[in-house]
Amino acid sequence: MQSGSVSAAPDPTEALHIANVSKGAGFPALTLTIPAGECVVLSGPSGVGKSTLLRLIVDLDPGIGSARIGNRIREEIPAYEWRKMVAYVPADSGWWAPRVSDHMSDESRARSLLAPLGLPERLMASSPDDLSSGERQRLALIRAMIRQPRFMLLDEPTASLDPATARLVENEMIRATKNGLGLLVVSHDPDQIARLSDRHYVLSATGVAGPLP
Amino acid sequence: MTPVELSFSDFLIAASSLLIASALSVRLSLRMHAPLVVAALRMIAQLVLVGIALRYVIAASRAPVTLSVAALMIAAAVREVHSRQKHHFSGWRRYGLGGLPVAVSAVFITGLALTTALRQDEWLAPQHAIPLIGIILGTVLNSTSLALNTMLDKIHRERRAIEAQLLLGADRRTALREISSAAAHNGLIPVINQMAGAGIITMPGIMTGQILAGMDPLAAARYQILLMLLLAGAGALSVVIATRLCIASVTDHRHRLRLGRVAQD
Fold first, then answer.
1. Residue-level pLDDT at A5
2. What gap in Å lies between CA B174 and CA B131, rounded to an integer?
Protein backbone atom coordinates (compact mmCIF):
# COMPACT_ATOMS: atom_id res chain seq x y z
CA MET A 1 0.00 0.00 0.00
CA GLN A 2 1.09 3.59 -0.57
CA SER A 3 2.18 5.19 2.64
CA GLY A 4 1.94 8.84 1.57
CA SER A 5 -0.88 11.17 2.56
CA VAL A 6 -2.48 14.25 1.07
CA SER A 7 -0.51 17.38 1.81
CA ALA A 8 -3.13 19.64 3.41
CA ALA A 9 -4.59 18.66 6.78
CA PRO A 10 -8.17 17.44 6.22
CA ASP A 11 -11.03 19.44 7.67
CA PRO A 12 -13.32 16.84 9.31
CA THR A 13 -16.41 18.98 8.71
CA GLU A 14 -16.00 19.10 4.92
CA ALA A 15 -18.69 17.40 2.83
CA LEU A 16 -18.33 15.05 -0.13
CA HIS A 17 -19.82 16.78 -3.18
CA ILE A 18 -20.80 14.65 -6.16
CA ALA A 19 -21.85 16.48 -9.34
CA ASN A 20 -23.33 14.80 -12.44
CA VAL A 21 -21.39 11.58 -11.90
CA SER A 22 -22.42 9.09 -14.57
CA LYS A 23 -21.09 6.32 -16.78
CA GLY A 24 -21.81 8.58 -19.75
CA ALA A 25 -24.59 9.72 -22.06
CA GLY A 26 -27.71 7.60 -21.67
CA PHE A 27 -26.89 6.53 -18.10
CA PRO A 28 -28.40 8.08 -14.94
CA ALA A 29 -26.34 10.85 -13.35
CA LEU A 30 -25.98 11.48 -9.63
CA THR A 31 -25.66 14.88 -7.98
CA LEU A 32 -25.72 15.05 -4.20
CA THR A 33 -23.79 16.18 -1.15
CA ILE A 34 -22.87 13.90 1.73
CA PRO A 35 -22.08 16.01 4.79
CA ALA A 36 -19.64 14.63 7.37
CA GLY A 37 -21.55 12.72 10.03
CA GLU A 38 -24.63 12.06 7.88
CA CYS A 39 -26.03 8.94 6.27
CA VAL A 40 -27.47 9.26 2.77
CA VAL A 41 -29.32 6.24 1.43
CA LEU A 42 -29.69 5.44 -2.25
CA SER A 43 -32.30 2.95 -3.40
CA GLY A 44 -33.77 1.96 -6.75
CA PRO A 45 -34.59 -1.06 -8.88
CA SER A 46 -31.96 -3.76 -9.43
CA GLY A 47 -29.76 -3.16 -12.46
CA VAL A 48 -30.42 0.57 -12.65
CA GLY A 49 -26.78 1.36 -11.92
CA LYS A 50 -26.44 2.05 -8.17
CA SER A 51 -23.27 -0.02 -7.76
CA THR A 52 -21.86 1.50 -10.94
CA LEU A 53 -22.33 4.98 -9.47
CA LEU A 54 -20.50 3.99 -6.28
CA ARG A 55 -17.61 2.65 -8.40
CA LEU A 56 -17.54 5.92 -10.36
CA ILE A 57 -17.50 8.07 -7.22
CA VAL A 58 -14.52 6.15 -5.88
CA ASP A 59 -12.82 6.43 -9.31
CA LEU A 60 -12.70 2.70 -9.96
CA ASP A 61 -14.27 3.07 -13.42
CA PRO A 62 -13.91 5.87 -15.97
CA GLY A 63 -16.93 8.12 -16.29
CA ILE A 64 -18.06 11.73 -16.37
CA GLY A 65 -18.88 14.25 -13.66
CA SER A 66 -16.86 15.42 -10.70
CA ALA A 67 -16.37 14.74 -7.02
CA ARG A 68 -14.62 16.72 -4.31
CA ILE A 69 -14.21 16.95 -0.56
CA GLY A 70 -14.19 20.62 0.35
CA ASN A 71 -11.85 22.10 -2.23
CA ARG A 72 -9.93 18.85 -2.81
CA ILE A 73 -10.94 17.76 -6.30
CA ARG A 74 -10.80 14.01 -7.03
CA GLU A 75 -8.93 14.37 -10.34
CA GLU A 76 -6.26 16.58 -8.78
CA ILE A 77 -5.05 14.05 -6.23
CA PRO A 78 -3.74 10.51 -6.86
CA ALA A 79 -6.57 7.98 -7.06
CA TYR A 80 -5.10 5.90 -4.19
CA GLU A 81 -5.18 8.98 -1.93
CA TRP A 82 -8.79 9.67 -2.89
CA ARG A 83 -9.73 6.06 -2.07
CA LYS A 84 -8.13 6.42 1.37
CA MET A 85 -10.55 9.27 2.06
CA VAL A 86 -13.57 7.77 0.28
CA ALA A 87 -13.82 4.03 0.94
CA TYR A 88 -16.11 1.77 -1.06
CA VAL A 89 -17.22 -1.63 0.23
CA PRO A 90 -18.89 -3.67 -2.54
CA ALA A 91 -21.60 -6.22 -1.81
CA ASP A 92 -19.07 -9.01 -2.41
CA SER A 93 -15.52 -7.89 -1.72
CA GLY A 94 -12.37 -9.64 -2.92
CA TRP A 95 -9.70 -11.21 -0.71
CA TRP A 96 -6.10 -11.80 -1.70
CA ALA A 97 -4.16 -13.22 1.25
CA PRO A 98 -4.36 -16.61 3.03
CA ARG A 99 -5.73 -15.36 6.38
CA VAL A 100 -8.28 -12.68 7.28
CA SER A 101 -5.77 -10.95 9.57
CA ASP A 102 -3.37 -10.54 6.60
CA HIS A 103 -5.90 -8.11 5.10
CA MET A 104 -6.12 -5.88 8.18
CA SER A 105 -3.81 -2.85 8.28
CA ASP A 106 -4.34 -2.53 12.06
CA GLU A 107 -5.10 -5.88 13.64
CA SER A 108 -5.87 -4.62 17.17
CA ARG A 109 -8.33 -2.05 15.83
CA ALA A 110 -9.88 -4.76 13.66
CA ARG A 111 -10.25 -7.08 16.70
CA SER A 112 -12.02 -4.31 18.61
CA LEU A 113 -14.72 -4.19 15.91
CA LEU A 114 -15.36 -7.95 15.75
CA ALA A 115 -17.67 -8.27 18.79
CA PRO A 116 -19.82 -5.19 17.98
CA LEU A 117 -20.48 -6.74 14.57
CA GLY A 118 -21.24 -10.18 16.04
CA LEU A 119 -18.06 -11.89 14.84
CA PRO A 120 -15.88 -14.26 16.91
CA GLU A 121 -12.14 -13.54 17.35
CA ARG A 122 -11.13 -16.85 15.78
CA LEU A 123 -12.17 -15.56 12.34
CA MET A 124 -9.01 -13.46 12.17
CA ALA A 125 -6.97 -16.63 11.73
CA SER A 126 -9.36 -18.15 9.19
CA SER A 127 -9.05 -18.29 5.45
CA PRO A 128 -11.55 -15.98 3.71
CA ASP A 129 -12.58 -18.98 1.59
CA ASP A 130 -13.83 -20.79 4.71
CA LEU A 131 -16.19 -18.00 5.79
CA SER A 132 -19.86 -17.42 5.03
CA SER A 133 -20.80 -14.52 2.76
CA GLY A 134 -22.25 -12.67 5.77
CA GLU A 135 -18.98 -13.04 7.71
CA ARG A 136 -16.95 -11.89 4.73
CA GLN A 137 -19.24 -8.90 4.23
CA ARG A 138 -18.80 -7.72 7.84
CA LEU A 139 -15.04 -8.36 7.75
CA ALA A 140 -14.80 -6.31 4.55
CA LEU A 141 -16.58 -3.50 6.40
CA ILE A 142 -14.08 -3.76 9.27
CA ARG A 143 -11.17 -3.87 6.80
CA ALA A 144 -12.32 -0.55 5.33
CA MET A 145 -13.32 1.10 8.65
CA ILE A 146 -9.97 0.55 10.36
CA ARG A 147 -8.31 2.71 7.71
CA GLN A 148 -10.42 5.58 9.05
CA PRO A 149 -11.78 7.02 5.79
CA ARG A 150 -13.71 10.30 5.83
CA PHE A 151 -16.59 8.82 3.80
CA MET A 152 -17.78 5.30 3.13
CA LEU A 153 -19.86 4.04 0.23
CA LEU A 154 -21.58 0.80 1.25
CA ASP A 155 -23.28 -1.40 -1.33
CA GLU A 156 -26.05 -3.37 0.42
CA PRO A 157 -23.94 -3.88 3.55
CA THR A 158 -26.49 -6.16 5.24
CA ALA A 159 -27.70 -8.11 2.19
CA SER A 160 -26.31 -11.45 3.44
CA LEU A 161 -27.29 -11.00 7.10
CA ASP A 162 -30.17 -12.10 9.31
CA PRO A 163 -32.24 -9.23 10.81
CA ALA A 164 -30.56 -9.33 14.25
CA THR A 165 -27.04 -9.24 12.77
CA ALA A 166 -28.10 -6.56 10.29
CA ARG A 167 -29.12 -4.40 13.28
CA LEU A 168 -25.63 -4.82 14.75
CA VAL A 169 -24.13 -3.51 11.52
CA GLU A 170 -26.61 -0.63 11.41
CA ASN A 171 -25.73 0.28 15.01
CA GLU A 172 -22.06 0.38 14.09
CA MET A 173 -22.84 2.57 11.09
CA ILE A 174 -24.86 4.97 13.28
CA ARG A 175 -22.02 5.07 15.83
CA ALA A 176 -19.53 5.84 13.05
CA THR A 177 -21.63 8.70 11.67
CA LYS A 178 -21.82 10.19 15.17
CA ASN A 179 -18.01 10.21 15.08
CA GLY A 180 -18.06 12.24 11.86
CA LEU A 181 -18.05 9.57 9.14
CA GLY A 182 -20.16 10.41 6.09
CA LEU A 183 -22.05 7.44 4.63
CA LEU A 184 -23.66 6.72 1.28
CA VAL A 185 -25.53 3.42 1.61
CA VAL A 186 -27.31 1.44 -1.09
CA SER A 187 -30.29 -0.37 0.42
CA HIS A 188 -33.55 -1.96 -0.70
CA ASP A 189 -34.96 -2.46 2.81
CA PRO A 190 -37.59 0.24 3.63
CA ASP A 191 -37.25 -0.35 7.40
CA GLN A 192 -33.49 -0.03 7.21
CA ILE A 193 -33.79 3.11 5.10
CA ALA A 194 -36.11 4.59 7.75
CA ARG A 195 -33.71 3.67 10.57
CA LEU A 196 -30.49 4.86 8.89
CA SER A 197 -31.08 7.66 6.47
CA ASP A 198 -30.71 11.33 7.13
CA ARG A 199 -31.67 11.74 3.47
CA HIS A 200 -33.05 9.22 0.97
CA TYR A 201 -32.69 9.34 -2.80
CA VAL A 202 -34.18 6.98 -5.38
CA LEU A 203 -32.29 6.21 -8.57
CA SER A 204 -34.17 5.32 -11.76
CA ALA A 205 -33.18 5.01 -15.40
CA THR A 206 -34.04 8.67 -15.92
CA GLY A 207 -32.15 10.07 -12.95
CA VAL A 208 -32.26 10.63 -9.21
CA ALA A 209 -35.32 11.68 -7.21
CA GLY A 210 -34.99 13.12 -3.74
CA PRO A 211 -34.37 13.76 -1.04
CA LEU A 212 -37.63 12.00 -0.21
CA PRO A 213 -39.60 13.15 2.81
CA MET B 1 35.80 -30.12 -36.94
CA THR B 2 34.44 -32.41 -39.68
CA PRO B 3 30.71 -32.26 -40.36
CA VAL B 4 28.88 -35.60 -40.14
CA GLU B 5 27.74 -36.68 -43.64
CA LEU B 6 24.19 -38.05 -43.62
CA SER B 7 22.77 -40.25 -46.35
CA PHE B 8 19.13 -40.71 -47.36
CA SER B 9 19.05 -44.10 -45.63
CA ASP B 10 20.19 -42.41 -42.37
CA PHE B 11 17.07 -40.24 -42.52
CA LEU B 12 14.89 -43.25 -43.26
CA ILE B 13 16.27 -45.04 -40.19
CA ALA B 14 15.70 -41.92 -38.05
CA ALA B 15 12.13 -41.65 -39.35
CA SER B 16 11.38 -45.36 -38.75
CA SER B 17 10.45 -44.76 -35.09
CA LEU B 18 8.00 -42.10 -36.23
CA LEU B 19 6.53 -44.48 -38.80
CA ILE B 20 6.18 -47.24 -36.16
CA ALA B 21 4.47 -44.82 -33.77
CA SER B 22 2.13 -43.69 -36.54
CA ALA B 23 1.26 -47.29 -37.42
CA LEU B 24 0.50 -47.99 -33.75
CA SER B 25 -1.65 -44.86 -33.65
CA VAL B 26 -3.71 -46.13 -36.60
CA ARG B 27 -3.97 -49.61 -35.08
CA LEU B 28 -4.97 -48.33 -31.61
CA SER B 29 -7.16 -45.44 -32.89
CA LEU B 30 -5.08 -42.87 -31.00
CA ARG B 31 -5.56 -40.33 -33.81
CA MET B 32 -2.10 -38.86 -33.32
CA HIS B 33 -0.57 -40.09 -36.59
CA ALA B 34 -1.90 -37.29 -38.79
CA PRO B 35 -0.68 -34.35 -36.67
CA LEU B 36 2.61 -36.16 -36.04
CA VAL B 37 3.31 -36.80 -39.73
CA VAL B 38 2.14 -33.33 -40.78
CA ALA B 39 4.38 -31.72 -38.14
CA ALA B 40 7.35 -33.84 -39.24
CA LEU B 41 6.83 -32.99 -42.92
CA ARG B 42 6.41 -29.32 -42.06
CA MET B 43 9.61 -29.39 -39.98
CA ILE B 44 11.56 -31.01 -42.87
CA ALA B 45 10.28 -28.44 -45.36
CA GLN B 46 11.00 -25.51 -43.01
CA LEU B 47 14.55 -26.60 -42.19
CA VAL B 48 15.46 -27.43 -45.80
CA LEU B 49 14.16 -24.04 -46.95
CA VAL B 50 15.96 -22.26 -44.11
CA GLY B 51 19.15 -24.15 -44.96
CA ILE B 52 18.92 -23.11 -48.60
CA ALA B 53 18.12 -19.49 -47.68
CA LEU B 54 20.97 -19.30 -45.16
CA ARG B 55 23.40 -20.57 -47.79
CA TYR B 56 22.64 -17.50 -49.85
CA VAL B 57 22.62 -15.15 -46.85
CA ILE B 58 25.97 -16.46 -45.59
CA ALA B 59 27.46 -16.39 -49.09
CA ALA B 60 26.28 -12.78 -49.51
CA SER B 61 27.67 -11.85 -46.06
CA ARG B 62 26.27 -8.33 -46.14
CA ALA B 63 25.03 -6.48 -43.07
CA PRO B 64 21.75 -5.23 -44.66
CA VAL B 65 20.86 -8.79 -45.69
CA THR B 66 21.68 -10.16 -42.20
CA LEU B 67 19.66 -7.41 -40.54
CA SER B 68 16.70 -8.02 -42.87
CA VAL B 69 16.69 -11.73 -42.03
CA ALA B 70 16.90 -10.90 -38.30
CA ALA B 71 14.01 -8.45 -38.65
CA LEU B 72 11.92 -11.12 -40.41
CA MET B 73 12.67 -13.60 -37.63
CA ILE B 74 11.68 -11.04 -34.97
CA ALA B 75 8.45 -10.24 -36.83
CA ALA B 76 7.59 -13.95 -36.99
CA ALA B 77 8.30 -14.31 -33.26
CA VAL B 78 6.10 -11.29 -32.45
CA ARG B 79 3.27 -12.81 -34.46
CA GLU B 80 3.77 -16.15 -32.68
CA VAL B 81 3.59 -14.51 -29.22
CA HIS B 82 0.35 -12.87 -30.28
CA SER B 83 -1.13 -16.14 -31.56
CA ARG B 84 -0.25 -17.97 -28.31
CA GLN B 85 -2.23 -15.52 -26.17
CA LYS B 86 -5.68 -16.43 -24.89
CA HIS B 87 -6.37 -12.73 -24.28
CA HIS B 88 -6.04 -10.10 -26.98
CA PHE B 89 -5.78 -6.33 -26.78
CA SER B 90 -6.80 -3.75 -29.33
CA GLY B 91 -4.74 -0.83 -30.70
CA TRP B 92 -0.95 -0.76 -30.25
CA ARG B 93 -1.16 -3.30 -27.45
CA ARG B 94 -2.39 -5.97 -29.91
CA TYR B 95 1.16 -6.74 -31.03
CA GLY B 96 3.10 -4.31 -28.84
CA LEU B 97 2.46 -6.07 -25.54
CA GLY B 98 4.16 -9.29 -26.66
CA GLY B 99 6.25 -7.79 -29.43
CA LEU B 100 8.20 -5.21 -27.46
CA PRO B 101 9.58 -7.65 -24.84
CA VAL B 102 10.57 -10.11 -27.59
CA ALA B 103 12.17 -7.55 -29.89
CA VAL B 104 13.94 -5.49 -27.23
CA SER B 105 15.40 -8.41 -25.29
CA ALA B 106 16.40 -10.41 -28.40
CA VAL B 107 18.09 -7.42 -30.09
CA PHE B 108 19.81 -6.26 -26.89
CA ILE B 109 21.19 -9.67 -25.84
CA THR B 110 22.19 -10.68 -29.39
CA GLY B 111 23.92 -7.34 -29.87
CA LEU B 112 25.67 -7.66 -26.52
CA ALA B 113 26.94 -11.16 -27.37
CA LEU B 114 28.04 -10.31 -30.90
CA THR B 115 29.93 -7.23 -29.80
CA THR B 116 31.63 -8.82 -26.78
CA ALA B 117 31.97 -12.54 -25.96
CA LEU B 118 31.15 -13.85 -29.44
CA ARG B 119 32.83 -11.02 -31.31
CA GLN B 120 34.21 -11.90 -34.74
CA ASP B 121 36.19 -9.80 -37.16
CA GLU B 122 32.89 -8.95 -38.78
CA TRP B 123 30.42 -8.72 -35.86
CA LEU B 124 27.33 -9.04 -38.05
CA ALA B 125 28.65 -12.14 -39.84
CA PRO B 126 25.45 -14.04 -40.73
CA GLN B 127 26.80 -17.48 -39.75
CA HIS B 128 27.03 -16.18 -36.15
CA ALA B 129 24.33 -13.53 -35.91
CA ILE B 130 21.43 -15.47 -37.41
CA PRO B 131 21.70 -18.73 -35.43
CA LEU B 132 22.31 -16.70 -32.25
CA ILE B 133 19.26 -14.47 -32.65
CA GLY B 134 17.27 -17.59 -33.58
CA ILE B 135 18.07 -19.41 -30.37
CA ILE B 136 17.54 -16.27 -28.26
CA LEU B 137 14.19 -15.59 -29.96
CA GLY B 138 13.08 -19.14 -29.09
CA THR B 139 13.71 -18.50 -25.41
CA VAL B 140 12.19 -15.02 -25.20
CA LEU B 141 9.17 -16.18 -27.20
CA ASN B 142 8.46 -18.91 -24.62
CA SER B 143 9.17 -16.69 -21.61
CA THR B 144 7.05 -13.80 -22.85
CA SER B 145 4.12 -16.03 -23.87
CA LEU B 146 4.08 -17.87 -20.55
CA ALA B 147 4.41 -14.70 -18.48
CA LEU B 148 1.67 -12.84 -20.35
CA ASN B 149 -0.75 -15.78 -20.36
CA THR B 150 -0.24 -16.34 -16.62
CA MET B 151 -0.63 -12.68 -15.82
CA LEU B 152 -3.75 -12.05 -17.90
CA ASP B 153 -5.39 -15.30 -16.72
CA LYS B 154 -4.79 -14.38 -13.09
CA ILE B 155 -5.95 -10.80 -13.55
CA HIS B 156 -9.24 -12.06 -15.00
CA ARG B 157 -9.71 -14.67 -12.27
CA GLU B 158 -8.66 -12.41 -9.38
CA ARG B 159 -10.27 -9.20 -10.50
CA ARG B 160 -12.21 -8.68 -7.26
CA ALA B 161 -9.10 -9.25 -5.12
CA ILE B 162 -7.12 -6.71 -7.17
CA GLU B 163 -9.91 -4.16 -6.95
CA ALA B 164 -10.22 -4.76 -3.21
CA GLN B 165 -6.57 -3.71 -2.83
CA LEU B 166 -7.07 -0.67 -5.06
CA LEU B 167 -10.10 0.30 -2.97
CA LEU B 168 -8.00 0.16 0.19
CA GLY B 169 -5.51 2.65 -1.22
CA ALA B 170 -2.98 0.46 -3.02
CA ASP B 171 -1.47 1.77 -6.23
CA ARG B 172 -1.70 -0.39 -9.35
CA ARG B 173 1.81 -1.85 -9.05
CA THR B 174 1.20 -2.89 -5.45
CA ALA B 175 -2.20 -4.38 -6.28
CA LEU B 176 -0.67 -6.43 -9.12
CA ARG B 177 2.63 -7.28 -7.40
CA GLU B 178 1.78 -10.88 -6.45
CA ILE B 179 0.33 -11.60 -9.87
CA SER B 180 3.26 -10.12 -11.80
CA SER B 181 5.66 -12.04 -9.57
CA ALA B 182 3.83 -15.33 -10.30
CA ALA B 183 3.81 -14.49 -14.02
CA ALA B 184 7.55 -13.74 -14.03
CA HIS B 185 8.21 -17.01 -12.19
CA ASN B 186 6.15 -18.99 -14.72
CA GLY B 187 7.82 -17.23 -17.63
CA LEU B 188 11.24 -18.22 -16.37
CA ILE B 189 10.44 -21.87 -15.56
CA PRO B 190 11.72 -23.18 -18.95
CA VAL B 191 14.98 -21.22 -18.62
CA ILE B 192 15.52 -22.31 -15.01
CA ASN B 193 14.66 -25.95 -15.81
CA GLN B 194 17.03 -25.86 -18.78
CA MET B 195 19.88 -24.61 -16.59
CA ALA B 196 19.06 -26.93 -13.66
CA GLY B 197 19.00 -30.05 -15.82
CA ALA B 198 21.84 -29.13 -18.17
CA GLY B 199 24.34 -31.94 -18.50
CA ILE B 200 22.71 -34.08 -15.77
CA ILE B 201 19.18 -34.74 -16.96
CA THR B 202 19.44 -33.42 -20.51
CA MET B 203 22.24 -32.69 -22.93
CA PRO B 204 21.70 -29.18 -24.32
CA GLY B 205 21.03 -29.11 -28.04
CA ILE B 206 23.92 -26.90 -29.13
CA MET B 207 26.44 -28.86 -27.05
CA THR B 208 25.09 -32.17 -28.36
CA GLY B 209 25.31 -30.93 -31.92
CA GLN B 210 28.86 -29.72 -31.48
CA ILE B 211 30.05 -32.95 -29.83
CA LEU B 212 28.34 -35.02 -32.56
CA ALA B 213 30.06 -32.81 -35.13
CA GLY B 214 33.43 -33.60 -33.53
CA MET B 215 34.13 -30.68 -31.19
CA ASP B 216 36.04 -31.25 -27.95
CA PRO B 217 33.36 -31.81 -25.21
CA LEU B 218 34.93 -29.28 -22.81
CA ALA B 219 35.03 -26.64 -25.52
CA ALA B 220 31.40 -27.49 -26.39
CA ALA B 221 30.45 -27.19 -22.68
CA ARG B 222 32.08 -23.77 -22.41
CA TYR B 223 30.21 -22.57 -25.47
CA GLN B 224 26.97 -23.97 -24.05
CA ILE B 225 27.53 -22.21 -20.69
CA LEU B 226 27.98 -18.92 -22.47
CA LEU B 227 24.82 -19.46 -24.49
CA MET B 228 22.78 -20.46 -21.45
CA LEU B 229 23.85 -17.34 -19.58
CA LEU B 230 22.78 -15.25 -22.55
CA LEU B 231 19.46 -17.11 -22.81
CA ALA B 232 18.75 -16.70 -19.11
CA GLY B 233 19.47 -12.99 -19.36
CA ALA B 234 17.26 -12.62 -22.43
CA GLY B 235 14.42 -14.60 -20.82
CA ALA B 236 14.59 -12.55 -17.61
CA LEU B 237 14.71 -9.26 -19.52
CA SER B 238 11.72 -10.20 -21.68
CA VAL B 239 9.70 -11.24 -18.62
CA VAL B 240 10.46 -7.98 -16.80
CA ILE B 241 9.42 -5.92 -19.83
CA ALA B 242 6.33 -8.06 -20.48
CA THR B 243 5.02 -7.83 -16.90
CA ARG B 244 5.67 -4.06 -16.68
CA LEU B 245 3.92 -3.47 -20.02
CA CYS B 246 1.05 -5.72 -18.96
CA ILE B 247 0.48 -3.69 -15.78
CA ALA B 248 0.48 -0.48 -17.83
CA SER B 249 -1.93 -2.04 -20.34
CA VAL B 250 -4.56 -3.43 -17.97
CA THR B 251 -4.65 -0.34 -15.75
CA ASP B 252 -4.75 3.40 -16.34
CA HIS B 253 -3.17 6.50 -14.79
CA ARG B 254 -6.02 6.64 -12.21
CA HIS B 255 -5.03 3.18 -10.95
CA ARG B 256 -8.14 1.52 -12.33
CA LEU B 257 -8.33 -1.98 -13.74
CA ARG B 258 -9.27 -1.66 -17.44
CA LEU B 259 -10.22 -5.19 -18.46
CA GLY B 260 -12.43 -3.76 -21.21
CA ARG B 261 -9.23 -3.39 -23.22
CA VAL B 262 -8.75 -7.16 -23.22
CA ALA B 263 -10.80 -9.64 -25.22
CA GLN B 264 -10.71 -13.34 -24.32
CA ASP B 265 -10.69 -16.15 -26.91
1. 40
2. 40
